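Homework help board

Subject: predicted structure for assignment chain

Our instructor gave us this sequence and asked us to write out the predicted structure in token form, then describe one feature. I got the tokens but I'm not sure how to describe them. Can anyone check?
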Amino acid sequence: MNHFRKSLLKKPPGMSLSEVLIAVAILSMAAAIALPELSNIRRRVALRTASSRITNFLIFCRASAIMHGRSTAAVFEQIGDSRWRLSIAVDGDGDGVRSHDLQTHIDVITDVYRELECSPVEVGFLKGHRLPDPSGRGTLGGNLDDPVRGGVSDIITFTPEGNARSGSIYLFDQHSSMRVIRIYGVSGRVRTLEWHLGERKWKRVTW
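My token output:
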């Protein structure tokens, strides 16, 4: 009987208040350490995704120009503070794809490839920093409010031979990293470079 009473008076299994508070404190510290790293991972993934989309878009335009024997352009159109529409246009009069010819429907947009939106990544530059030139020569110059550099307009045309006018599209993650997709005119090849705050040079990446 005494044994039975003792078993009834035993403290039920569980955690004391102090143990709960310790567990909460440990979880809070773990979250404080993990959250910044999760944010960094999210930015890296978004930057890679955005640059891959643009690269694939440009490669597709170049392949279309070669396959169909007709100048084909990648058209970049800003439709919001951080949103861009990517379209494909074909040459209608043999002089390359031009803004005026698009407005007068001599050159024709054949497909809206997609809208580029990979928050927090935007098309643009990290502000307030001196950026190295991707060519490796000094500091990046030109208009830092113009992140799509393909001549007078935001149009990059590929010829049936696969050539193009040299151009660059800059992306940044609103924190400390940038990527640039470069089009090399003579070959029409597309390459991606990456730069992180504090580094002196851009580095080529393959993904």
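Reply (TA_rk): Your tokens look well-formed. For the description, you could write something like this. The two ends are 74 Å apart (CA to CA). That's the kind of observation they're looking for.
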